[in-house]
Amino acid sequence: MKARRLAILCTHPIQYHSGWFKALAAQPKIDLEVLFCRTATSAEQAAAGFAVEFDWDVALLDGYQYRFLKNIARNPSVARFSGLDTPELLSVIERETFDAVIIMRHLMQSLLSAGIIKAHGKLCGLAGKRKHR
To answer: Is the separation of the CB atoms in 65 and 19 below 8 Å?
Structure first.
């Protein structure tokens, strides 16, 4: 059986996703490519709840195919709705003929593309965490 082409759209490389991406990429029936909207800065890591600026000391991009989409947001950020604006997403999805797309987290403005991806006949799933207040 031919491997299914799977795209995962993610805000930025995140330490607790990398192991899952590696495991998916190792499956012979899955042809995985992860599409990132941005590389988070050390200041953005701190603002995400770590309280100090840092860069990860583990390889977050090893073991799977990935690409960084061009983010044209005026003020790029993973913390604001308008901080992730990746208009090339739709052409990448169509050109690469993915069978399915998983959209991780809350992808802000890029999330608007989910409806368009679905309208183009692609299987589209949303995954994320719920913030408890």
So the answer is: no
In tens, the pLDDT along 5-39 reads 999 988 888 888 899 999 999 999 999 999 998 88
- Sketch out the chain's domains with CATH numbers: 1-50+62-72+89-105+117-133 (3.40.50)
Q: Is the C-alpha dihedral spanning 26, 23, 119, 92 positive or negative?
A: negative
Q: Greatest CA span in the chain, whole angstroms?
A: 48
Q: What does the alpha-carbon distance between residue 19 and residue 13 come to, in Å, rounded to a whole number? A: 11
Contact 122, 21 (CB under 8 A): no
Side by side, the strands of the sheet bearing 100-104 are: 65-68, 30-36, 4-10, 100-104, 123-127
Under 8 Å CB-to-CB from 105, ≥6 apart: which residues?
A: 10, 11, 127, 128, 129
pTM of the model: 0.78
